[in-house]
User: Fold these one by one.
Assistant:
Number 1:
Amino acid sequence: MLNFNEFKKDESNSIQEMFNSVVFNLITDIPDSLLCPNRDPDTRADILIKQAALKAAAVSTSLSIPAGFTGVLTSIPDIAAVWRIQAQLVSDIACTYGKFAMLTREAMVWCLFRHSAASLLRDVAVRTGSRIVVQKLSLAALQKLLQKIGVKISANFLGRIALRAIPAIGAIGNGAYTYFDTNEVGKTAKSYFKALEGVEKPELVENAIDKESESSDDGADQSASGENSAESTVHSSDENN
């Protein structure tokens, strides 16, 4: 019999590692789209969202059917497949609004996790009027952000893993959650790219996260400089004596 408490820690670490790998690949290699700008992007985006939500729900439901330990093993392929579907949805919506060139890695993270990790993403975007301006992050800041999101997402996902021990009900529950989750991703992407209509190129602003990192580095350098100066004074005093 599967002991969930003993498995919980290892599973959480596995999900976090998988998260960092899969999502980092998605945002550094944004999926291409075969779609073109649409004359009625709002209606087309709604259709894309519904199609993606149904597809993601079907994938999650089918991978959640096995119960017990086998069901737990399918949890990682499940969430990885769903994220790929959601990333493709974001890409397709961007193309539908003719804004694929503005789909940066930061915008992809915003669209994928805005609804599930809002508190962690509050410093990633700035509202200017009716638009959301996603800030450009350094690679180091982006990796740290993904790690934090990974901890939050994996903790929530462990509760869904428990449902897999219940035949049928667990599969339906996971499918319903995935449908809702994908729908939220689509709505975020639709709102973001719709608000960019009339904008020719992405607007970048200086990121507070990187500022904090630079301030910390400067503080560390000043501290080290102070220590070196103190050491020099001590050595000089010893030599004079």
Number 2:
Amino acid sequence: MTAGQRLAQDAAEAAELRAYRTHPDVIALRVERVRAQVDRLCWAGIVLGLAFTMTNVQSFAADGSPVWSLPWLAAWLLDPTVSLVLLAILRAEQVTARYQVSTGPWVRRAKWFTLAATYVMNTWQSYAAGSLSGIVLHSVPPLLVFTAAEAVTDLRDKLTEAVNAAFTEAAPEREPASTTGRRRTRGRKGRKLFADYLDEARQAWTPDVVITPAWVRQVTDCSRGLSSRLAETLAAELDGGERP
């Protein structure tokens, strides 16, 4: 086997490997694994943070009641009541964010109320005593839970968009170029799809233009990785009978 044949074989193997690595189903599988890791870590942090606040909320609710008295025992129910409502909202948002379904304003209000109630009850005694160290100590867990609850929803939404972007860029491989070119759709929040870039390049093309990735980037402002596929698709489309 000559050196050129070995290089050709290596190039073919590299192309096959890259095709599998960039396949939208493989990308979706990787994103799902990352999503599972993110969910586990965020849920662990949120549960631990809420568990840390439990004793301070119980002390706030008991208000000096004798140990093992009914008011003292009932005070232990306050923090789990608030925490369970918060966890139920976060669990629901886990599903809605996965499918990019927006929730109503009352969902966010309920979440903020439960977080604000946890923070106030957890830090009330420290504020009353004027203890700066106590305020800082008991503010960190509820604030961490608050920021994590907001961040995890956005993270799930962006991970879903990453999967959608992988499928969008692979659209020409799954359907004919002419069909993809005629169907102009917009992604959620105005995100440009492959068909949008292709339509812009098609409208900007003139018979005296040589279709290259650099020209595609110039007229569509797309990424370098996408410009090559756009140039190939547009050239094949024009060579198929649309070139004057």
Number 3:
Amino acid sequence: MEIRPVRYDHPDAVTLDELVQQEYARRYGDGDMTPLDPEMFTAPHGAYLIAYAGARPLATGGWRRQEDAAEGYAVGDAEIKRMFVVPEARGRGLARRILAALEADARAAGRSRMVLETGIKQPEALELYASCGYVLVEKFGLYRTYDDSRCMAKVLVTEG
């Protein structure tokens, strides 16, 4: 298994994004409406990763710099987007490995807090994030007014 940085518009990223959108539609009735641009996931503003088994992409995730106070973000925030593992590769720890790599990259880029939004119809995501040290926080972002939305955060750096 190899985790590689790619552009958000890389063909493998596009394919995995289509699959995650189908997953969202199946669970919520619609895909994620958050506007995303490949430049959001380029250093130093973010990163986009894919886990490969040989040439086959199995898992993905990215982070992007977010500091828009009007949407509930704070200075230093890095927001996780498009965490996804193809169904046949689930249960192998790939999401946990992608998440750790995203946290390390965001920390190296000077981000102080990792934030994410997920929903109540993704209990496995909520469990993963909680087991990795994420806690529920006040809602932020596009889905902050949705009842089934849950926002979580984890401090990446401690003052000392």
Number 4:
Amino acid sequence: MRRGAILLALLLGGCAQSPGAGGGGGIVSTNPCVDSVLVRILPPARIAGISHYSQDPSATSIPLAVARRFRGIAGTAEEVIALHPDLVIASTYTPPATQAAYARAGLKTLLLGIPDSIAESQAQVKQIADAVGAPAGGARINADIDRAVARWSRKDGPKDDMPPSALLYISGDLATGGSTLLNEMMTRVGFRNAAASYGLTHTGTLSAETIVTQPPAIVIAPERASRGTALRRRLLPRTPQAVFPRVLINCGGPTIPPALERLAAIRAAL
């Protein structure tokens, strides 16, 4: 908690100037996961706009008090082009028509996908940092990730020990499957992702009724009180339920260290 308060103070302290003010230039991000990197490695004045998702409590990976200091961008080509940015960083899911509009306007763009592993996330952090001319900042984030992986990765137990099974819900009945960043983090701290036991090979819907006959050792979810959570508690009264904050679910990069720490704490409490 104290470390989070210090981070918030540092980020807010860096936002004393009006971010994105002036007659154009700077970096525009329409990708909330990119936002979480940019606010840690760039002076606020270089950030002309961030994704409006970063200003949404259910989608952000940065403190709302920090996100609301910046111009929120919905991602339309018109509003981005009007800012005349030096660089637009967006998602590979950006509509082709929007990408074409950026190209016609002569904007330099960087499109990024969703990393499926810690290594891919670190590579993406480096790519962002290099693109905005802040390689040292990217290196700091990746060094933090390396330290967290070394600290929170569980050492192998006896060969015949089976790791406890866990289901991690992203929202409602949407559970994390295999081949994802969250899946790797679960595995590193000593969980076995139970999704495959129910035929879920990728992230997808998994209702409480589906798992009631073969419950996992623990259910992890971001909501303390929701319809899905209430139903799982009623149908699985003997199955432990743990809270994993939504802010740790949305992105990788600088979110990885606190996510690993929280998952490790849940594992240690079993």
